[in-house]
Each structure stands twice: as C-alpha cells, then as structure tokens.
Amino acid sequence: MTTAELARRADVSSPADILALAADAGRVRTARLGAQPALCSLVSIRSGACPEDCRYCAQSAHWAADPPTWPMASADVITERAQALEPAGASHVCLVASGRGPDADDLATVCEAAGRIRRATAMRVCACLGLLSRDQAVRLRDAGVVRVNHNLESSSRFYPFICTTHGWEERYDTAQAVKQAGLELCSGGILGLGESDADRLALLLALRDLDPEVVPINVLNPRPGTPLADAVPPTPLEAVKWLALARLALPGAAIKLAGGRESGLRTLQGLALLAGANGLIIGGYLTTGGRPVTEDRALLRDCGFRA
Questions:
Q1: How is residue 137 annotated by DSSP?
Q2: Which residues contact residue 100 at a Cβ distance below 8 angstroms, ignoring those fewer than 6 apart?
Q3: Distance between CA atoms of residues 248 and 6, nearest Å
Q4: Do residues 114 and 92 make contact, with C-beta atoms less than 8 angstroms apart?
Q5: pLDDT, tens digit, for every residue of 84-138?
Q6: Strand extents, DSSP E, 91-138
Q7: What is the CB neighbour count within 10 angstroms for residue 15?
Q8: Which of 263-268's residues contact partners 24+ apart within 8 Å by CB, and which partners?
Q9: Which of 15, 44, 78, 285 could potentially form a cystine with 113 if both were Cys, beta carbons 3.0 to 4.6 Å apart?
Q10: Is 103 exposed, middle or buried (0-12, 13-18, 19+ CB in 10 A)?
Q11: HSE (CB half, 13 Å, CA atoms) of 140?
Q12: What is the dihedral of CA 78, 122, 140, 203, to 10 degrees?
C-alpha cells in the first residue's frame, strides 16, 4: 500500500469505517500468514535502575515508580526462568534487560544463557538489551540468539518529547545493526504517548523501511510515578485502527499485541486479532502481569487461529 493510501485510510474515524479497515487488514493477514499465531514470552533478566529517562517507563531511575529491581541474573537463573515458561506454548522466549545497553559481562551472560536455553528447551531465543553495535549483535547471533527486539517507539519528530538521554537515530541504528548481523529484527512502538496521527504514520513508514520480521504494538498502560502517569491512552477502537494500518503497511510481518493490550484494548482484543494482528506476548510483561494463558488460547481459537 502506498504512503498516500495509508494516509488516506488513517483519516477514518467512524466505527463502521474502522471495521471496514479492519476487515481489509484481516484479509491481508490471512492471505500472507494464515492461521498460525506467533507467541512469545518474556524473561526479565535485569530490572529497574535504568539510567535512561524514557517518560513512559517505570524502570527509569529518573522517576519515582518504584519497580521491582534486581541486577543482571546469572545464566543459571535465566535458563531456569526460561524453562518455566515453555509449557505456556510460546515458540520464542525473549531475554529482556533494563539499561542503556550491555557491557562485556552482560553480553557474555546473555550469550551463555542463550546456549543453555537452546539445549534445554525447544524455544528459540530472542534478546532485548538496549542499544547495540553490529559487533555485539554478531556475538549474540553466534551464541544462538535468533532475534533482537529494539522498538522505535514513535516517530523521529516526537521522540525527543519522551526521551532525552538518547536519540531516535540511535534506536534506528541499533535496528539496522541487528539486520546487518543477520538476525531477525523485532521492532514496533507504543500508542498513547501523546503523539499525533502523523507521528503514528511516520512510525509505520520508518518500520516499513527497516522491514522487521516482528512488529510488537504496545498501548500505553500509564505507570504511577512516571511523567505519563496521567496520560490518556487511545480508545480501544482507535488502537484497533492503528493495528489494522500496521498490517497494511507491513503485510508480511508478525504483528503482535504486546504491553498494555489488556488495559488498552479491553474487550476488543479479539477484534484486534481479526484486524490483522497475528501474535501475542503471553505470560505477563516486565513490571505488570498479563492474562492467564488459558484465556489467551481461548481467544486465539475464537478468532480462528490454530492455538
């Protein structure tokens, strides 16, 4: 779909027009990806005390959100936590560390854990470690990591309003380094940070340029103690609209309902799946819990997926 057509479709606002948009996106998802859902679980391997000042994030040391905080876990602990998630049925497990980026010791720990998880489980290993160089991405690849998550979050224009300790361009460079290293790229964004529709469209176009294999779409779940604690997220129907537009912009990517889907989409999670999304983060998030996996499996079956 051309940029002009995406912009035209982004102008719709009535429930009937959004449903028509959702139907078009759902047909694209079915034709390109079929009915097999993409499921991923997260392991928090270091939490809190992050030096970056992302205004939405409870793990930033700049805010008074008081998140669960612990240092980098050992390879033994990371492997045990990953193994405990396997019965939920995710095909991938993502090792997530708070912080600007990994130092040499952090990277060595993640690489060791990745090898152990590969040997101990049937899950494929992903990592979300902050800013990365190409050499660091290559080390992860050589250790058995298959995919790296690094979200663009929003448009380049809007990003300085939500973070000042690093720039949007650094995030984009990390995403490019991941691709150059031969890893799959997982990169998406957050709806509800205060961005405009033009910013959301710019995010989708930047993601299309990167061509990620996976696109997680988060809906802001305002965290007490952060500067965005009183932010008003988009309505569930508005979130569905942008999920549908993400499918039309990125027809072959796995588009996953990620953080904030329970509070942001509420009763429209099923519609979001019918509107082009084909995956879920299951088993909870980094500082907030998720739905029981049994409920997510029922949701997928109700929407025609092979759960």
A1: H
A2: 50, 51, 52, 130, 131, 165, 166
A3: 8
A4: no
A5: 999 999 999 999 999 999 999 999 999 999 999 999 999 999 999 999 999 999 9
A6: 92-97, 124-128
A7: 11
A8: 263/219, 263/221, 263/233, 264/191, 264/192, 264/218, 264/219, 264/220, 264/221, 264/233, 264/234, 264/236, 264/239, 265/219, 265/236, 265/239, 265/240, 266/236, 267/236, 268/236, 268/237, 268/239, 268/240
A9: 78
A10: exposed
A11: 33
A12: -100
The continuous run of DSSP H or E covering 38 comes out as strand 38-46
Q: Which helix (H) or strand (E) holds 302?
A: helix 293-302
Domain spans, the chain: 15-302
Question: What is the DSSP pairing of strand 189-191 with strand 214-219?
Answer: parallel
DSSP output for 163-175: -SSS-HHHHHHHH
Instruction: Determine how β-strand 124-128 pairs with β-strand 145-149.
Output: parallel
Question: Is-contact 87 116, C-beta < 8 A?
Answer: no
- Going by pLDDT thresholds of 50, 70 and 90, the confidence category of residue 202 is very high
Note the pLDDT of residue 284: 85
Can you tell me the mean pLDDT for 213-232?
A: 97
Residue 145: enclosing H or E segment and its boundaries? strand 145-149
Tell me how far apart the alpha carbons of residues 83 and 97 are, in angstroms, rounded to a whole number: 18
Query: Rounded distance, CA 79 to CA 212, Å?
Result: 27
Q: What is the pLDDT of residues 33-68, one digit of tens each?
A: 999 999 999 999 999 999 999 999 999 999 999 888
Cβ atoms 121, 88 nearer than 8 A: no
In this structure, the strands spanning 124-128 and 92-97 are parallel
Sign of CA dihedral 55, 153, 235, 35: negative
> Model pTM?
0.96
- pLDDT bin (cut points 50, 70, 90) of residue 285 is confident
What integer pLDDT is reported at residue 289 of this predicted model? 79
Name the one residue in this structure whose structure tokens are 């992302």.
Answer: 54
